[in-house]
Sequence to fold (471 residues):
Amino acid sequence: MSDKKRIERDSMGEMEVDAVAYYGASTQRAVLNFPISTLRFSKEFNSNLALIKKVAAETNIELGLLDVNLGTAIISAADEVIEGKFEDHFVVDIFQTGSGTSTNMNANEVIANRSAEILGAERGSRGLVHPNDHVNMGQSSNDVIPTAIHITAASVISHSLIPALEKLSAVLKEKSIEFFDVIKTGRTHLQDATPIRLGQEFDGYAGQSDRAITRLQHALSELSEVAIGGTAVGTGVNTHPQFADLICQKLSKYLNLDIRETSNHFQAQSTLDNMVEASGVTKTIAVSLLKIANDIRWLGSGPRAGFAEIALPEVQPGSSIMPGKVNPVIPESVCQVAAQVIGNDASVTIAGQSGNFEINVMMPVAAYNLIQSVTLLASVIDNFVEQCLRGIKATSAGPDMVEKGLAICTGLVPRIGYDASAKIAKDAEKTGKTVREIAKEQTDLTDEELQELLDPFQMTEPGITGAPSGG
Fold:
């Protein structure tokens, strides 16, 4: 920006604006009113907001409501915003008017001023292209902003987060197959449990990923329902009856999504229920990732004093004081993103409670947190897959401990009963001998029978009769 100023006008009067700024008086008022933080809407959000302005102009031209030359200039200006050419001119703080009106006007003014330039007028001349009358024609902040939030979150979910989860699931399934013959001691309550295959553990992680995709697909369907066409309070005042349907058709084409007008504008504009659900799904995914990443950290702990059942790729030195130390930094970054997403969901939940009569008044903060959560999850999952999961190797530590495990005595229960088996396990613990050695001393089971009953691979197969329940 520059030190030179120009005078812009809005319904409240004159306002001094930076001479090179494409925004106008309403945006400048918001800049002065909300000097709260450095947080701003993302480029993706601003691009989708401009996309709404573009398709609105296209629609209004088709409906005979907007002059073709004027509308074409608006479309061209909106395209430049979509490309990111005016990102520095979207200057309104996230913590602003709860409807996001300031950000809607920021877009209207930038596009109006750029359109005026395209048509040969000076920047700041409201006479030729008006931000409200022309760029905002048939719209209200109250239906535009929730629509922009929905389509931005839906786009990132569809084009980034779901593909990342599909990649995560695929890699985990590959590892499940790779590790299927690696037998190890299972753990419940952080204590030794019956044997499990390392591949079965990884199959569990893959199952979490698959179910995350299923949950996201429902959230995506909810977000694809948009408020556009409801204008101020949901009645559609000052908009053409075909406006919303035409806009949704165009948004669907541009975004490669099935965008549809809500069947109930009054709920669409007075609540954030769809966003709250989508945010809840991102929280669930974060919780799943915490489970997976922490398991990976523990399984790779060591290399000598931990479990060390898997070896993680070594990506950087782990200590500024301990030479040779390597830490599980990639899973740690996953855990931190998960913490951020869980916190974001709390903000979206509180924002969702702030629907007062015909409008929710915490839309900007809900938008920021939901979109950040979706974007962060997509990014960290991609990184987790490429920097960590693909390179994981199984070690011999898990198989080496199976014969020494105490919970393997569970295989004896169908033949000698729970109490006798428990005594064998306790005696094995006291003496340091194996369950097999104590069982041979205390029962008349033959070596062949013990081999069958204490076969750890057999214990990991489904359908074993007489297996106990409980953890």
Observations:
- The first helix runs from residue 25 to 33.
- The chain has 18 helices and ten strands.
- The longest strand covers residues 191-197.
